[in-house]
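Reproducibility note. Readers wishing to regenerate the assembly model reported in the main text can use the exact inputs given here. Chain order matters: entities are listed in the order in which they were concatenated for prediction.
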Amino acid sequence: MNWDWSVVEDFMPSFWDGVLVTLQALALGSLIAFALGLVWAMAQRSHRKWISWPVTAVTEFIRNTPLLVQLFFLFYVVPTFGPSMSPLVTGVIGLGLHYSTYTAEVYRAGIDGVPVGQWEAATALSLPRRRTWTSVILPQAIRRVIPALGNYVVAMLKDSPMIAVIGAFEMLGEARAFSNLTFTFEAYTVVGIAFILIAYPASLLLRALERRLAQ
Amino acid sequence: MSSGIFYEWFLPGVWITIQVTVYSAALAGLVAFVVGIARTHRLWIVRFVSGTYFEIFRGTSALVFMLWMAFAFPLMFGWQFVPMYAGVLALGLTYGAYGSEIVRGSLQSVSAAQREAGIALSFTRGQRLRRIELPQAWPEMVPPFNNLLIELLKGTALVSVISVADMTFAAGLSRLATNESAPAYVLLLFSYFVIAFVLTRIMRAVERKAKAGIGQGGGGKGRFRGLLALKLSPEGEMRQAKTGTAGGQG
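Running the prediction on these inputs yields the following structure tokens for the assembly.
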């Protein structure tokens, strides 16, 4: 093995650029996933079949097809009839949309986990439907799903390199460009280790958070 | 998609995707059981080594690891994999680490009295695992394994990035050749969905058989059937979110 630290040093400036883009994509993707997931979860619970059925079908379809292919679809097919977007924007939308189908299941589980007594109490107090959701059910449901949502953020972090394939320069994109230019391997290794160094403490943090919320 | 590309690339690509799925699922299953059981071992060193494996492979991104195997590994060690096997290894080792968490969790959920009964009957550890713990843990494992298998199937699309000619690769070729991407990618998305659907059907049959094997029937408690994936109970959903990413031992 012929590891060369000077190559690592040369790679560092573009590495930090990549980290920044990865974190941007992650933050925006999470926002979309959290918001859209709640919308899917509520729509799936709807008593109106014409809302719940198509939403269930679409989310199941998105959940059971690869993110990579969805990114290609958003990047190459959507512009033929809709807006064309930059690789990063496409990536953020792709990540957010894909993971929203996972967070939807988490919200569903959280809402199912709220004891029936809470619903009955809201009915007994004759709270309006909207009030029941916003001040009784959702605060309790969301509190118990925060760790699971956090875990999907870490999962999203590990899927974020896929947006390099459509040309966004996040960590992997930078490493690939650098390695192709210099015929070296250190950049890939640095990025691989960087993922572990971000994901592991993040998971530890989530476990601590989970213990705190469980009390 | 022109008929040439369809017959020459897409159909063989479907076969490659199925092959990669089957091989990496086999490897992942092996890794999951070996590492998962090792993580419940009584010697701390065995637990430590298997736990480290788990943390490393769970922390890294499958795509980065795959590119590393395909491009960095040959330069570092002067030894190259056939691209398809680089992909299978990367997927198998990564998803195997996730699977080990499922195996470990299900083994731990077998009631302690069962283990103690085995000890009282002076079973060896191997006998206890084989005759008492694994048969009871197995039905617990099947639904999360089903979801992991679907994740793995979705992960196989990544092999197209290291130039393995799977169906995603064929769709990319079609885009470049015909300058028309919509039909190819729509077909591709539906193909993945159909394979996922078939896999879920198979796993449901496996689950029924596993449940019947320990005298449980029916759909299980607190879980209702989704359109395709198994809907999990609230606790199951939380556990599933954790298998991929939860940190720390235990």
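We highlight two features of this model. The two ends of chain B are 50 Å apart (CA to CA). Residues 219-227, 246-250 of chain B have pLDDT under 50 and may be disordered.
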